[in-house]
């Protein structure tokens, strides 16, 4: 399965960035490709969310389970159902000297092997671009809130 990992450094406290990343219902406010995120259920450190996004103007929808590890500022997510066969990964947050490195990992499978052979590199680039867009939006929101 293809795996993409992207990272960004944000001049903000790790806890503040993590709390914003956990508040997925707010993503449409500052992430242009995210149309909506609806929390379907909350149970302790776990939520089930329904996502509607656009990738190159094409709608993609899925439901995922999100597990929040507050002690280690880590978010793990996994597809339950949707337009992809596999979509899972994690967000990690490490702070050093007032700068937090946020890493977003995505392990995915679009479920069409022949399509993957033909346009696999293009799909991987799109997943990478979308992940970077999310990280940059998080950075802008966090650093912008400090000015």
Structure summarized in a few sentences:
This protein is an alpha+beta fold. Helices cover 31% and strands 48% of the residues.
**Are there runs of 5+ residues with pLDDT below 50, and where?**
none
What CATH architecture do you see? Answer: 2-Layer Sandwich
CATH class: Alpha Beta
What is the count of helical runs?
3
Instruction: Find the CATH superfamily.
Output: START domain
Helix content: 25-40%
Overall morphology:
globular
Average pLDDT number:
87
Total tally of structural domains:
1
Q: Return the structural class.
A: alpha+beta
How many strand segments? 7
Provide the spatial order of strands within the biggest beta sheet. Answer: 1-7-6-5-4-3-2
Main β-sheet: number of strands, strand sense, barrel status?
A: 7 strands, antiparallel
Q: Order of SSEs, N→C?
A: EHHEEEEEEH
Radius of gyration: 15 Å
How would you name the oligomeric state of the polypeptide chains in this document?
Answer: single chain
- Please indicate the percent range of residues in DSSP E strands (runs of 2 or more): over 45%
Instruction: State the end-to-end distance.
Output: 41 Å
Structure report:
This protein is of the alpha+beta class and 147 residues long. The protein has one domain: Alpha-D-Glucose-1,6-Bisphosphate, Chain A, domain 4, CATH 3.30.530. It is built from 3 helices and 7 strands. It has a 7-stranded antiparallel beta sheet, with helices on one face. The longest helix has 32 residues. The chain is globular, with a radius of gyration of 15 Å. The chain starts with a strand and ends with a helix. The model has no long low-confidence stretch (mean pLDDT 87).
């Amino acid at each position: 399965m293809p795996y993409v990992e992207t990272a960004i450094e944000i001049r903000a406290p790790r806890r503040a960035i993590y709390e914003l990343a956990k508040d997925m219902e707010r993503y449409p406010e500052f992430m242009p490709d995210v149309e909506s995120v609806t929390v379907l259920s909350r149970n302790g450190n776990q939520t089930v969310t329904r996502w509607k996004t656009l990738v190159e103007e094409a709608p993609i929808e899925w439901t995922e389970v999100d597990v929040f590890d507050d002690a280690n500022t880590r978010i793990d997510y996994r597809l339950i159902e949707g337009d992809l066969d596999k979509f899972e990964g994690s967000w990690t947050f490490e702070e050093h000297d007032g700068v937090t490195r946020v890493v977003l990992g995505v392990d995915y499978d679009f479920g069409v092997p022949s399509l993957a052979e033909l346009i696999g590199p293009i799909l991987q680039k799109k997943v990478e671009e979308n992940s970077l867009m999310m990280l940059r939006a998080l950075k802008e929101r966090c650093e912008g809130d400090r000015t």
